[in-house]
Specification:
Strand content: 25-35%
Order of helices and strands: HHEEHEEHEEEHEHEHHEEEHEEEEEEEH
Shape: rod-shaped
Bound molecules: fe (ii) ion
Structural class: alpha/beta
Number of helices: 10
Strand order of the largest sheet: 10-9-8-5-16-17
Helix content: 10-25%
CATH class of the largest domain: Alpha Beta
């Protein structure tokens, strides 16, 4: 009897009363009396909700807990109230908060009686469902699936073909040495504007690589005593001759390091001081050539003073328009724009750039890039300011002693066969040292050599007080 009561979700007493009434009714209707036999499980009939029968666990309640939430479901069991659901599921309400709940009731027909003599009775079935959240959430970690990566050996990229290497070119841009001196009025000792340590480091790098070109980017000379823009310091007087002699000495060194390299000298604003002075103060001297060789540059000109012809060095004048095109995509210029802040000059220049430019003039290391979107796709161009080779300790005449200047040279790799690929690397030089391609370069003291070798040019063997 108790099994029937549980199955029908009724009390045992209710079942006994119900049976008594049924027996009376059967007697009245003349139907065979009820006899004891196995109870039949009620079967849901048409019209029941789809989700019957209940999937509940042994206590009649299904509990689904996920981190900070829980769903309790009781279907077709004894539970008919929210309180009953909480009690049967053994929920601690100090921990869990009931967010919402639903209670559904529906009728199903139950089958009773012996086999072959069954009858049906309607009974109520209940669904109670509640959604709970934790009052104090716990930390929930996401489910992390292990990532399985199949590791294959890195495919080897073959080295460039020999024919390709053969067509690759390399050159160095040498910016702003500002050859010049301040001369002691008492001892005639010459204190250079150019930095011999930086020049020697640049020379060692040039010697380590087979170069296709060497481009002096302009402001080879400082020519401080040729400008009437500023008050000329008497210490600058009569220093052009030793500047030219030492300048040529270093030019020769670079030529000896890379005799095969095409070498060019661009005119900078400092070289342009010389023709300006001639035009203003001595027009007759401008363009004047020696009659014994009219093919040589004018007597009072930078290429003639330096006797560039005896080293086969090309002069590119017409500052600020003079350009040395390395290939179709890279060009060297001295530069005529100077902005105060680091990066500002190249940022301004790159806006107009249609090709990669290597410049001097501002004595700073700066680079800015831009992508041009052309018919054949995107193409990168850049403006690289590759520093200077003059001293940066304030001796070079300028607006102020503590300049924001950096020493460097520009290493360029490129093709001559129409390919746009190129790399420009400014190699910084600090305190007579530079690192490039895994090697530390340290300057040697060359003053004695400069003194000795240049003094040889004078009959009395007395040179300059370098
Ligand atoms: Fe300069
Ligand atoms: Fe300049």
């Amino acid at each position: 009897m108790s099994e029937i009561a549980i199955a029908l979700n009724r009390s045992e007493r209710a079942i006994v009363t119900k049976l008594a009434r049924l027996r009376q009714r059967f007697e009245k209707e003349g139907r065979p009396p009820l006899v004891r036999g196995p109870a039949l499980t009620p079967e849901p009939q048409a019209g029941s909700p789809e989700d019957l029968p209940s999937p509940a666990g042994p206590d009649g309640v299904e509990k689904e807990e996920k981190g900070n939430t829980m769903v309790l479901t009781s279907k077709g069991g004894r539970v008919t109230t929210l309180e009953g659901l909480i009690e049967v599921a053994n929920i601690d309400l100090d921990v869990w908060l009931i967010e919402r709940h639903i209670i559904n009731k529906w009728e199903v027909a139950g089958k009773f009686g012996r086999v072959g003599d069954e009858y049906f009775e309607l009974q109520d079935l209940w669904q109670v469902k509640a959604w709970l959240v934790r009052k104090e959430p716990i930390q929930v970690f996401p489910v992390v699936s292990p990532v399985v990566i199949k590791v294959l050996p890195i495919p080897k990229v073959p080295l460039s073909l020999e024919s390709d290497i053969a067509r690759m070119r390399r050159g160095i841009a040498l910016p702003d040495p500002q050859f010049g001196f301040t001369k002691s009025l008492r001892t005639a000792k010459l204190d250079p504007f150019h930095d011999r340590a930086a020049l020697d480091v640049a020379l060692q790098i040039a010697q380590d690589y087979e170069l296709d070109f060497l481009c002096w980017l302009g402001d080879f000379f400082d020519l401080a005593d040729w400008s009437d823009k500023f008050t000329r310091d008497p210490n600058f007087f009569w220093t052009t001759q030793p500047s030219a002699i030492e300048g040529k000495w270093w030019m020769t060194q670079f030529k000896m390091a890379d005799p095969q390299a095409r070498t060019v000298l661009l005119e900078g604003n400092h070289e342009a001081r010389l023709p300006k002075q001639l035009i203003q103060h001595m027009k007759e001297a401008f363009g004047l050539r020696s009659v014994d060789n009219l093919d040589l540059p004018p007597l009072m000109s930078i290429p003639r003073i330096l006797a560039l012809h005896d080293l086969d060095i090309e002069w590119i004048g017409d500052y600020p328009n003079g350009q040395f095109w390395i290939n179709d995509y890279v060009v060297c210029e001295h530069g005529d724009i100077a902005r105060g802040q680091s990066g500002a000059t190249v940022s301004s220049m790159v806006k107009e750039a249609q090709e990669t430019k290597i410049i001097g003039h501002i004595h700073r290391i700066e680079s800015a890039t831009r992508t041009l979107h052309e018919k054949n796709g995107p193409r990168g161009v850049a403006v690289h300011s590759v520093g200077c080779l003059c001293r940066v300790d304030g001796i070079v005449p300028g607006r102020k002693a503590r300049n924001n200047w950096q020493q460097a040279i520009g290493m360029v790799e490129y093709y001559e066969d129409g390919r746009p690929d190129h790399t420009v690397i400014p190699i910084p030089i600090n305190g007579g040292r530079a690192i490039y391609n895994g090697k530390l370069y340290e300057a040697r003291d060359r003053v004695e050599e400069i003194n000795d070798t240049t003094a040889d040019r004078y009959e009395d063997g007395v040179g300059w007080n370098f």
